[in-house]
Specification:
The chain is an all-alpha fold. The chain has eight helices and no strands. Helix 6 (137-160) runs antiparallel to helix 7 (171-187).
């Protein structure tokens, strides 16, 4: 087993927790300002992961891309339904709405998906790629379970830094991101996780970011 890939999973968990705990939990930055360090630090980690491990990103995207699109569409329906089941709140109009869709919807959704689902799953697959487990169906299923668990660990660590998830509310992101990670595992393509996460965030912007739990941070008045 390639232990160096497991270290990347730990780094993702530590980084996710540190960013949310410091910039949301301690400093209480408004969402638009909070996302600046989140994007910068997360993208740096992702870039380092790709460069150090010489990941061929285009090959990963092309592999089973059609299943990734189908999986993403199915999961989008699930995540959007969940968003719409929550109380609505006011949303901006005009240019501000377009900005929020791109910033809190597309970019925020993409970063979340890459950090919480794609990196942990890909790292586990790579860690076990040259082991006997990867030679049998049962072994591949076990690797998938380990990858799923790794994603849940990173997801939990990241959301633990937000004060709003210091309760039973943690179940929401764990279940939701777990479903999107499962989509990646089943289809073998990260598009399933990325597209569904983007769809969820855009739905959150349109339904009202002040009340939708999928768009942290939120602060008590």
């Amino acid at each position: 087993m390639k232990i160096n890939y497991i270290i990347w999973i730990a780094a993702a968990a530590v980084l996710g927790f540190a960013v949310s705990a410091i910039f949301a939990g301690q400093l209480g930055l408004p969402r638009n300002f909070y996302l600046i360090p989140y994007f910068l630090l997360t993208s740096t980690l992702l870039y380092a992961y790709v460069r150090v491990n010489q990941i061929r990103v285009l090959e990963i995207i092309k592999h089973n891309w059609y299943w990734g699109l189908i999986g993403g569409a199915v999961l989008c329906a699930f995540t959007v339904w969940n968003v719409l089941s929550q109380p609505a709140s006011a949303r901006p109009e005009g240019a501000r709405l377009i900005f929020d869709i791109l910033y809190s919807g597309v970019l925020y959704g993409t970063m979340d998906a890459l950090l919480l689902s794609v990196l942990p799953v890909h790292a586990v697959w790579m860690a076990f790629s040259d082991t006997p487990l990867n030679q049998s169906l049962a072994g591949k299923i076990l690797i998938g379970l380990i990858a799923f668990t790794a994603s849940l660990l990173v997801t939990t660590a990241y959301h633990l830094g937000y004060p709003e998830y210091h309760s039973a509310a943690m179940r929401g992101p764990v279940i939701g991101n777990g479903a999107m990670t499962l989509g990646y595992l089943v289809t073998g393509n990260p598009i399933a996780a990325v597209f569904s996460h983007i769809g969820m965030h855009i739905a959150g912007v349109l339904h009202g970011a002040a009340t939708v739990t999928q768009l942290p941070p939120h602060y008590l008045p």
